[in-house]
Structures are given as structure tokens and as C-alpha cells.
Design goal:
This protein has 717 residues and is of the alpha/beta class. The protein has 23 helices and 20 strands. The protein starts with 7 loop residues before the first strand and ends with a helix.
């Protein structure tokens, strides 16, 4: 997998604020460098930021980038300057990538003049509000000590008007355990936000969070959030809550949706009003100068910033957190907490989060509440597993539709999807595209942040082409490569406004390029490998989301190399059929539909959240293939089941032991040279599993454990 790219920029456009919030990390925390910064970003600095980011996007071939206008209070720059800022960013970035523009504001000054600018440039608006009037006014007063509540609510009511509703991104609430959590949540949901985000107050071991009373709860923040979780569930999850959605995602093996939780690498840069690069703003809580890098946009680019040791430290996953965290069963969901919250003067950032007990309590509390304990039919039936995975893709598509509804391009695509789905023969073609393994990463973006419109438009186009439907779809396509999942890649003459006319005879591509010329396209289809037994395998060496393996993927192969790779794959399958007759008949047969060439030395690998995909190194050895594919089949099945049902209480030790037992049972039944040692380890893992509390395994997990014990009961050499 390639190095993480910087894909989010927090751009400070004004360094002062019209509120005096006493919990503000910019003005009230240890770092006070705001005092020496220009009040407003200059045009020269803005132009240089846009230039640097555009260069980086092109170099990294990024399909999208998010820019968040921030402060201080960004609305203080005024509508005219805001328009200049949005126009320059749009001019520099839209020809080379999909630009997601956002603004984070306290909302006090928001008016129709601002909203007309935001409507012109599709700027999504996030507003800070801490709940009802009493909760909000504990901290969020203006500089004259007056309430900000009514002014903020007026701003939100403007955003809720039909003409501006599409700009309303959501509400951000800083947790104060002195407030009634249900009253806070009900006050926020009454404002009908598209999303809510609950934020822990920025704190460190040297400046602990408030609300921890002697003799009180050891986990006051977890208790507070879990009361809201229960209310959220009771309401039917009216809108996404990023904190909860992130925990739910990681508990089921999915990605983290926030830097505050999970092990996902940071992809964030901050640029101050003077053009200096900084790390995350939350580091201002730690000590004076903590976010500083020594870099600025006049002397450095984003690629240099991405190599800064502080940035790298937030991209190192498990290796970058404390030993205590690495041993914790909920680490995949918690991720050690927000980097800034780990700080102490004695040990720097080599600590668990100051909210450690609360984060563990939150994750475990959510896990216990959402565990699905009944036996899932997919555990014993491969067809049911395929259907469950398809249903997961369809539910993600529905989330993407909710995010994109109202945009004319997508509404036309959705009408085509509904038409295809209502016809039995066309629905099968739609399912072929929806189950393409590398579509799911694009669909998962709909869980948090903007849906990937160009990718989804290309997906609908591919389904229409397979079904021979009559339709014309048009959208702004960043970059020249337009990949149609399961079919191939169109190499456009330029980025631009692409028009895809689908007929019963195929696809005609036209439109207008960013250079003003008429778009043309070259077609590179995907190839398949016909197997002696079983369905053909699609060879996908071009999908932009195929880079989901723990090792690098290969670049698209020349036709002769791809043909040779396909022949070797076919020969390896034939060798496996000869050496292990009947291997396709067991419950652990890998449900592989797509193979992607990996860089030399990559071996055989499963992709992350790519059901049906297998990565195979271009220089793989047949013996390695014969040995590893059946073992990967077991891992594949366990991963796939874990995405659609619970095998154990998420985050519990039982889940890890089930993974270990399956791996060792696989090696034991493979009759390898170390079968005796593999048998010993498999029995040890299953014995340890049997001694875990009975409530940790679900019926599905218990079924798998019994299945493995039956396998071990058969004599092995």
C-alpha cells in the first residue's frame, strides 16, 4: 500500500474570533502563537497555497481533496473576500481533482450574503453548538459575556431553508459532562442536522479534563456518550453521529471515520494565515509551539510537509502508540485516542489518551449493545454469504444516494439504477457491478464526508453498459482516467465535463475538456482468465481503488505481460486441482472473483474490505499459490463473515482467538511439515476460547469454533 497522502487541508483565513469560548484550544490553550499571526490571510499567501496544493494533487494523482476554511472565525473575512478565496481554490484545483470545500464556523455572523457565496461554490457549512441554551452558554459566550445561542440558531434556520439545505453539513458539539446528555442531544436533533459530531474537550495528562469528581464514575465521558447512544438508537438513528459511526465501523473491521478514534493514518495539514504549515490544531493543547513544523508554503510543498516527523508519527498505526495501548483489546476502535490527548511533560506523547478509561468504556459499551448473537445463515452457506455481502454494498449505495440526492447528475444516475433494478435481467448486471471488489471503498466514503460522485457515476455507467440500457449521463470528471468497474478504463483526452451516451450497442463518450476542446477517449478493457473448473477470474490491474493490500500493487501491465500473468494463474489453479482434489468443495473455498497483480515479491494477499479480491504478485511461484490459496480461503471467509455479522462481542479477546484458531487449523489440515506444531497451536487457541466467558462468542462464532474442533478430530499426518 502506498504512503498515506495528505487529502485534507485546514486553511486558516482569519486568526481572530468574535466569541470568547473558555474551552477554545486556539486562544485558551498552551500554544499562543496566534498572537503573532496576520489577522487575515493575504492574497499572495492564498495563491501560493492553491498552487502548492494543486501541484501535490497532480503529483499524487489524488481523485479528491478537502479544504476546510477555518479560523479563528472564518466569517470575519466578509463575503467578498470569502468569494475571492473560494474562487481561487476552485480555479486551481477543480481542473485536476474533485474539490470538497467546507467551512467550520460558530455561525454567529452567518447571513444570506455568505450563503450565496457558499451556494456558488458548493461550500458545506459545519457549525459549533454545544446543545440547548443552558448547555451552550456554559462556555460559548461572546466577548461582552452575552449568549451566542439565539444568533447561532438563527444561522442554522437559514441553512435549513430549501434553497440552502444542501450546504448544511452538520453540528459539532464539545462534550461537557455537567450538561444533561439527553437534553443536549435532543436540542441538536431538533435542528435537523445532516450529521452530529461529539468532541471530547481537548485535554492532556498535565491539564486533565473537567468532570472527574472524587468518588464519582471512573468513566464520566463514556457514561455521558452512552446515554446519548441509547437515545440515538431509541430514535432510530435519525442522522449519522460520527463518534458512534466510527466505533460501529471499526468494531466490524471497517475504517475509522475520525482522527479522534482508530488507527487510520492522519491525512491532515493545517496552514495558518501567514502560510506556515502546522500539524493538527489540537496539539495547541500540549505546549507552546507543539503544532509547528518550521515549514511554509513559500519554501516548502505538501510532499515535504507529509515527510515531517510529527506527521509521520500520526501515520504509524500501532507502532505509533504506547505499549499499554498496543496490548488493549479495543485498540482497533480507540487507536490510542487523539494524538494531542496523550501528551505529558514527562513522557511526551508516549502515553495512552488522558481519556483512556472513557474510550475503552465507550467502545465496550457500544460493542455490547450492538452485538448480533443469533446464528447467521451465511455461516453455513456460501450463497448466503454472497447475498449478505451484496446487501452490504446496496446499503452503502443507499447511504451514498442520501448524500447526493438533489444533485441533477446523480438524480439522473439514480433513476437509471432504479430502472435497472426493477428489471430482472438488468438487475443481474447491476449486481455484477455493485459486487466489484474495489467499489466498496468509494461507497464507504458515504459513511463520512462527501460521496465520490465521479466514481459512482462511472459505476452506474458500467451497469448501464452491461445491461444495454438507453441513457445519457454527464458529470465533471477530474483526471483523465475514467474507470468503469468490472469493464475497463477510458483514457480521456483531458479532464472535463464528460458525457456518456449508453445504447444497446455500447457506449459513446464525448463532452468538453477543461482545455475547451471536445473530449475523446481511448478504451482499455479488463481481461479475464478462463478456468477449467469454476467461473472466470477478472484481472483488474487498473482500478484506482485497488491499492488496498498490505503491499504495493503493480502498475497496469502491458498486454503481453498481462496475458502471461493470466496463463500462469490458470496453470497454478490446475496444479492446485491436481494436488488437492476437492479443495473447492469445502466451506472455506475462497469466493474470489477478481485478481489484481501486485508488485514483485508481494506474494498472495487479501485486500482490505474488498470482498472477492485477491492480490497476486507478478512473480508468484506456483508452489506458493498451491500452498497459500486454501489458507487464504479460511481468512477470506472469516473476514467476510465478520463484515455481515458478529462472531464475538466486537473488541473482545474471543474474536482474536477465533482468528488464531482458524489460521492454525488451516495449517494443520494442510498436511504441512509442521502439522504437529500447527495442531498444538490450534488446540491451544480453541482451549483458550473455550475458557473465555460464554457471553463473548455469538452463536455464529460458536458454530465456527465447533466446526474447527470437528476438523481437528479427523486424523492428520
Amino acid at each position: 500500500m502506498s504512503d498515506p497522502a495528505i487529502q485534507q487541508l485546514v486553511l486558516k483565513i482569519h486568526s481572530r474570533c468574535d466569541l470568547a469560548c473558555d474551552h477554545c484550544y486556539v486562544y485558551e490553550a498552551a500554544d499562543q502563537t496566534w498572537r503573532s499571526r496576520p489577522t487575515v490571510i493575504s492574497e499572495e499567501t492564498l495563491d501560493q497555497v492553491a498552487r502548492r496544493l494543486s501541484e501535490y494533487v497532480v503529483a499524487r494523482k489524488l481523485e479528491s481533496v478537502t479544504v476546510i476554511l477555518h479560523g479563528g472565525e472564518p466569517l470575519l473575512v466578509g463575503p467578498a473576500r470569502l468569494r475571492r478565496i473560494c474562487a481561487e481554490l476552485t480555479r486551481a484545483l477543480c481542473p485536476v481533482t474533485a474539490l470538497d470545500l467546507r467551512i467550520h464556523t460558530n455561525g454567529v455572523r452567518l447571513n444570506r450574503d455568505h450563503l450565496r457565496v457558499f451556494d456558488e461554490f458548493d461550500v458545506k457549512v459545519g457549525i459549533s453548538l454545544d446543545g440547548d441554551r443552558a448547555a451552550n452558554d456554559r462556555h460559548r459566550l461572546d466577548r461582552r459575556g452575552r449568549s451566542s445561542y439565539d444568533r447561532v440558531v438563527r444561522a442554522i434556520e437559514l441553512l435549513r431553508l430549501p434553497e440552502y439545505r444542501h450546504l448544511y453539513q452538520g453540528l459539532l458539539c464539545t462534550v461537557d459532562v455537567a450538561n444533561d446528555p439527553v437534553a443536549v442531544h435532543d436540542a441538536l436533533t431538533a435542528l435537523d442536522p445532516p450529521r452530529i459530531d461529539y468532541l471530547l474537550p481537548h485535554s492532556t495528562w498535565d491539564a486533565p479534563p473537567p468532570g472527574r469528581e472524587p468518588g464519582g464514575s471512573a468513566t464520566p465521558y463514556a457514561d455521558w456518550l452512552l446515554r446519548i447512544f441509547d437515545r440515538w438508537e431509541e430514535q432510530g438513528r435519525l442522522m449519522p453521529v460520527r463518534t458512534f459511526d466510527s466505533v460501529l465501523s471499526t468494531l466490524r473491521g471497517g475504517p475509522s471515520l475520525t482522527e479522534a478514534l482508530g488507527l487510520a493514518p492522519s491525512d491532515l495539514a493545517v496552514i495558518e494565515t501567514d502560510g506556515t504549515f502546522e500539524q493538527a490544531d489540537s496539539l495547541k493543547t500540549a505546549y507552546e509551539g507543539a503544532p509547528a513544523t518550521g515549514y511554509d508554503v513559500f519554501r516548502h510543498g505538501f510532499a515535504e510537509f507529509a515527510e515531517h516527523p510529527g506527521v509521520r508519527a500520526r501515520q504509524s498505526g500501532l507502532a505509533g502508540i504506547s505499549e499499554t495501548c498496543r496490548r488493549c483489546p479495543v485498540v482497533q476502535s480507540c487507536g490510542g485516542g487523539l494524538y494531542a490527548h496523550r501528551y505529558s511533560a514527562e513522557r511526551g506523547f508516549d502515553n495512552p489518551s488522558v481519556f483512556c478509561a472513557d474510550l475503552k468504556g465507550l467502545v465496550e459499551g457500544v460493542a455490547e449493545r450492538i452485538t448480533e448473537r443469533a446464528l447467521h445463515p451465511a455461516v453455513a452457506d456460501a450463497d448466503e454469504l454472497r447475498l449478505a455481502q451484496l446487501e452490504l454494498d446496496r446499503s452503502l449505495l443507499a447511504r451514498a444516494n442520501a448524500a447526493l440526492a438533489g444533485r441533477p447528475e446523480w438524480d439522473a444516475a439514480w433513476r437509471l439504477l432504479v430502472r435497472l433494478d426493477s428489471d430482472e435481467s438488468s438487475a443481474s448486471h447491476l449486481n455484477t457491478v455493485l459486487t466489484h471488489p474495489y467499489l466498496r471503498p468509494a461507497l464507504r466514503r458515504s459513511l463520512d464526508g462527501p460521496a465520490d460522485l465521479p466514481r459512482l457515476m462511472a459505476t452506474v455507467t458500467a451497469a448501464g453498459v452491461l445491461a444495454g440500457a438507453e441513457a445519457t449521463l454527464s458529470w465533471d470528471q477530474p483526471g483523465r482516467d475514467l474507470h468503469l468497474p468490472a469493464l475497463g478504463t477510458l483514457r480521456l483526452s483531458a479532464p472535463g465535463r464528460v458525457e456518456c451516451a449508453i445504447t444497446a450497442d455500447g457506449l459513446r463518450v464525448g463532452g468538453t475538456g477543461s482545455d475547451g476542446g471536445e473530449l475523446t477517449a481511448e478504451w482499455r478493457p479488463l481481461e479475464s482468465v478462463e478456468l477449467t473448473d469454476g467461473p472466470p477470474l477478472l484481472l483488474d490491474d487498473a482500478d484506482p481503488h485497488r491499492d488496498c493490500y498490505p503491499v504495493p500493487v503493480a502498475a497496469p501491465l502491458p498486454p503481453s505481460d498481462l496475458a502471461l500473468f493470466g496463463k500462469r494463474l490458470r496453470a497454478a489453479h490446475e496444479a492446485l486441482d491436481d494436488r488437492r482434489p476437492g479443495w473447492r468443495e469445502g466451506v472455506n473455498v475462497p469466493l474470489i472473483t477478481t485478481v489484481t497483480p501486485l508488485a514483485p515479491g508481494g506474494g498472495l494477499r487479501l485486500g482490505s474490505h474488498a470482498f472477492g479480491a485477491l492480490g497476486v504478485a507478478v512473480d508468484f511461484e506456483p508452489e506458493e499459490f498451491v500452498r497459500e490459496l486454501p489458507l487464504l480461503g479460511r481468512e477470506f471467509r472469516l473476514r467476510a463473515l465478520g463484515e455481515v455479522t458478529d462472531l464475538a462481542v466486537p473488541g473482545s479477546a474471543a474474536g482474536r482467538l477465533l482468528d488464531e484458531a482458524s489460521a492454525w487449523v488451516g495449517r494443520a489440515v494442510a498436511d504441512e511439515d509442521d502439522a504437529v506444531e500447527s495442531l498444538r497451536r490450534a488446540r491451544h487457541a480453541l482451549d483458550a476460547l473455550a475458557h473465555r466467558p460464554g457471553s463473548e462468542l455469538t452463536e455464529s462464532g460458536a458454530h465456527l469454533a465447533d466446526e474447527m474442533r470437528e476438523e481437528l478430530a479427523v486424523p492428520h499426518g
